[in-house]
Design goal:
four-stranded antiparallel sheet; disordered C terminus
């Protein structure tokens, strides 16, 4: 009868836990201190609120801690002497690996359990209902994260032959998606006219640490300030209570935890096939060497390019205009840094793999040439845009709604009037036709007439997807002038970084004067202000942005002729939200409203003509004839 083989050995586990007790003991101390750091004077609410954000922070901690634990547990595989001695012991590889996995999981479960118990005690007396459950949700989330990172760290340990190789494999697996997103964002995306930053962020789903810290919402508590205000306004004696809800990130955590289990199983497969003589090599799996060499060469190449941009300030901002392939060709320094980086990375990786400096052989050159050619083709292919991403226009029948804003990071208010979709699509086509390139913008600013503004549109398709485009257009050009009817829509004027201000919730105005501001809360006065505001919106003069009001005059101080202002600042305060409004000299109705209330008693309206005639002349000459698409 065949004897059963145990996959876990108590002696190995006990030795692991005692041998590395200082490490996970320090982890316990750090977690306990971290819990106390979350406390403050407003303990009844803020401590619970801090707990909801703890899983996002712990993703970073788990990423590093899991790698450290795996390095400690599997460090005997990385030196030939200890590796041979270890495998001379009467223990099966399954038993040795299973015991270390159990030890690694205990090093997370015990510290986080202590943290959860302590946090449960500290939640007593909180205004958050069922607050005692929050630490246990955090306990579950943190250990699901750790299961993924530990599984990945174990798998990386068996791909590598030494500690440096393990760090390289683990780092590549965790941050490859983020690195690709950064390269796409800074190099390739700016070559496609109109594409906005952010589309590459979808790649972050393949980098759990970055995805959890940026996008995951596991636990949510309503805004305490809003609830407190509602409670105070109601003037009731009922106790202020609030409760937490679970978000949508738990499904993602469950998926990556299952991946962690799969990685642990794959670790056993790799360990069974691992050759003892691989101890000390950078990689224990030889077929990975070409991929490692290519990856290091690309990382160095793009890294050197980023260094060039930071040293010369030659980077092209994707938020403002597109860059052409010709611009790359003219910038020889950029190509030089990229080429040098590829060479350094290619031969540097070979040195690490062979543990020798004698790697400059003719046989290595063809591979480097092929890699450089592929990189060049990616730039050329992006510039030629074979997929037609630049010129893409939606089918009106596929569009559910359309949004419009001056910048992609603002809220996109939805346009709901009849014909709005057709208007926006016409403006979209005009922006494509106008096309301001980075070279053209750079040339124009040398002569002080290069003022441009943004044109941003968001299409929400009927299939649920969203498509955003952002174009830089001349402020005096045909697209910007045609867009004035949309720039001055009340909902577009009042769109901000945090949403669209609901003008019906207006409760007060704060007008920032030259010396001191005034506040208006009278409802009749507020209604009168709104009437003037709407009148200027209809007149097409309320567009936000100084470029739309050039040569219309300035607000100047009678006490200091050198002090001028382009606008008067008005803060609109609502019940819960606020908005910022700039009133310019050509906003006749709103300006008259301010003058009638003596707000401008210390301001003079000083016309300043001719300051920007050069740009107006440039634009007039540029668009004297129909513009053709470049």
């Amino acid at each position: 009868m065949q004897l059963k083989t145990s996959c876990c050995n108590k002696t190995v586990i006990r030795k692991d836990l005692t041998r590395f007790a200082p490490v996970w003991g320090a982890y316990i101390l750090a977690l306990v201190m971290g819990v106390f750091l979350l406390l403050d004077e407003d303990r009844d609410h803020s401590f619970a609120n801090h707990l909801t954000t703890l899983p996002m922070f712990m993703a970073v901690v788990n990423c590093g801690y899991a790698m450290l634990v795996a390095q400690l547990l599997f460090g005997d595989l990385y030196t030939a002497r200890s590796c041979y001695a270890l495998h001379a012991m009467p223990l099966r590889r399954e038993t040795w690996l299973g015991s270390h996995i159990v030890s690694g999981l205990v090093m997370s479960l015990v510290p986080t359990l202590i943290m959860a118990i302590l946090a449960t005690v500290l939640t007593m007396g909180s205004v958050v209902e069922r607050a005692w459950m929050l630490p246990w949700y955090v306990f579950g989330a943190v250990n699901l994260q750790y299961l993924f990172f530990f599984g990945l760290a174990c798998l990386s340990s068996f791909f590598a032959g030494n500690r440096l190789g393990m760090i390289a494999c683990y780092g590549a697996a965790n941050f490859l998606a983020g690195a690709v997103a950064a390269v796409v964002h800074s190099l390739y995306q700016p070559m496609l006219y109109g594409l906005v930053p952010g589309s590459e962020e979808k790649l972050l789903v393949f980098s759990p640490m970055l995805n959890i810290t940026e996008q995951s919402h596991l636990l949510e508590i309503p805004d305490y300030g809003e609830l407190l205000q509602d409670w105070w306004l109601a003037k009731e004696s009922y106790p202020l209570r609030m409760s937490f809800t679970t978000g949508e990130g738990w499904g993602y955590l469950a998926v990556i935890a299952l991946l962690g289990i799969v990685f642990l199983g794959a670790s056993l497969v790799l360990y069974r096939r691992r050759k003892l003589e691989a101890a000390g090599d950078l990689l224990a799996v030889k077929p990975l060497e070409p991929l490692f060499q290519i990856g290091v060469a690309l990382a160095c190449g793009y890294g050197f390019q980023f260094v060039h941009d930071s040293l010369t300030d030659a980077s092209y901002n994707p938020y403002y205009a597109t860059q052409s392939l010709g611009n790359f060709v003219r910038n020889r320094g950029w190509f030089l840094f990229l080429a040098v980086g590829l060479v350094v990375g290619w031969f540097g990786a070979r040195m690490l793999l062979e543990r020798s400096a004698r790697v400059f052989r003719k046989q290595a050159v063809p591979g480097l040439v092929v890699l450089a050619a592929v990189v060049a083709l990616t730039f050329a292919g992006t510039a030629m845009d074979p997929l037609g991403l630049e010129t893409w226009m939606p089918d009106p029948e596929d569009v559910a709604s359309v949004g419009f804003a001056q910048d992609y990071y603002l809220d996109f208010p939805t346009l709901e009037r009849p014909g709005d979709l057709e208007t926006v699509m016409n403006l979209h086509a005009m922006a494509l036709n106008e096309r301001v390139t980075a070279e053209e913008l750079a040339d124009s600013t040398k002569d002080n007439y290069g003022y441009t503004t943004s044109f941003c549109v968001k299409y929400t398709m009927k299939n649920g997807s969203e498509v955003k485009r952002r174009y830089q257009v001349w402020a005096d050009g045909p697209t910007a002038q045609a867009a004035l009817s949309l720039w001055t829509r009340p909902e577009v004027v009042l769109s901000d970084y945090f949403g669209v201000f609901d003008i019906s919730q207006l409760e007060s105005l704060y007008i920032n004067g030259p010396k001191q501001g005034i506040t208006i809360r009278d409802q009749a006065e507020l209604d009168s202000f709104l009437a003037a505001f709407y009148a200027d919106c209809e007149a097409g003069t309320m567009a936000q942005g100084w470029l739309y009001h050039r040569n219309k005059g300035w607000f100047g101080s009678p006490y200091d002729e050198t002090v001028v202002r382009s606008s008067i600042d008005v803060n609109l305060e609502g019940k819960r939200y606020s908005a910022y409004l700039s009133v310019y000299p050509d906003c006749a109705n709103t300006l008259q409203w301010l003058q009638d209330r003596d707000v401008l008693k210390e301001l003079n309206l000083e016309p300043r003509e001719g300051d920007y005639d050069q740009q107006s002349t440039y634009i007039a000459e540029k668009y004297a004839e129909p513009t053709s698409t470049k």
